[in-house]
Amino acid sequence: AGRPVGEFHWGSTLWHEMAHVFTLEATGHRVPRWLSEGISVFEEWRTGPTPGIAVPPELLQALKDDQLLPIADLDSGFIRPSYPAQIQVSYMQAGLVCLFIEQRWGFERLASLLHQFTKDVTTVQAVRAALEIEPAAFDREFDAFLRERFTRALAEWEDWQAAYQAAGQAVEKEQWRAAIDAARRAVGIYPEHVGPGSPALLLAHALEKADRKEEAIAALQAYRAAGGWDPGAMRELASWLDEAGRTHEATEILATLNYVDPLAAELHLQLGERFLVAGRHEESLREFRVLQSMPDADRPAAHFGAARALRALGKREQSRRELLDALAAAPHYRPAQALLLETIEERSAP
In terms of CB atoms within 10 Å, which end of the chain has fewer, N or C? Predict the structure, then answer.
């Protein structure tokens, strides 16, 4: 990928784009932009690889400033934005519209709304037919839904901004107690902000520096549950969990990084070994197979790992071939030599 690791979530992007395939194909490409994008964002939240409903500050600022668009005109936010952040805001608004429809009328009505666009209809006509409500009334109910969902953040917006700024400044000065207090307040007011520079990351960092590791772990777990996925933070969380003897949890966190950094050879090697130790042999084999396909991977280790996974699965002949491949790449690779010798002795036994 052309973008640095941490700026792009491959798994969520896959979920988002596949949802577009379904909505476009289901409607013969008639679905309006806002609904196709909204369902894609909604599916990221509902079934995608990251939990939680992450909402950036730009959406709340737009809500606070009454800049959200009526549903009948939501397409214009994507096509003719009138302020710098409006395209991003429109993505979030469309996703939240779908969430509101699911919670207010049920998932089936959201599907019904999509199916209205198998015909040449407007958004106004589709809303009336599928939801049996006038668009203006829909807008009022949606606005109330958002203001209830984000009641505290909207009421304490200036306090959140001040606490967020104070936390960042305290971290820079290594004033860990002050950083913890300010970051914890910011997270409490607005936990949905899990993007770059999230107060939750500042909180976890300050807690770790203050030797409050268990609280730091809890802070990053809450951050992840809210939709956060920063790869550096997730690697740190896995390391802390390992130190605490919570190996299974650490492995699960590392597995989520496959969706963020799928080209990290060392991650596939680490997961292959972890899954093998945990008795998850099919998953271990998958990781070693991926590693084998990577041009800069440790090929002897990849073949040796696959050999052990196959052996654990009872596939002895395939395991032997992997061992031979490992030794072809590194003839003096002692672990592969030892396991091959053991395999030969087993075959020779009466």
Answer: C
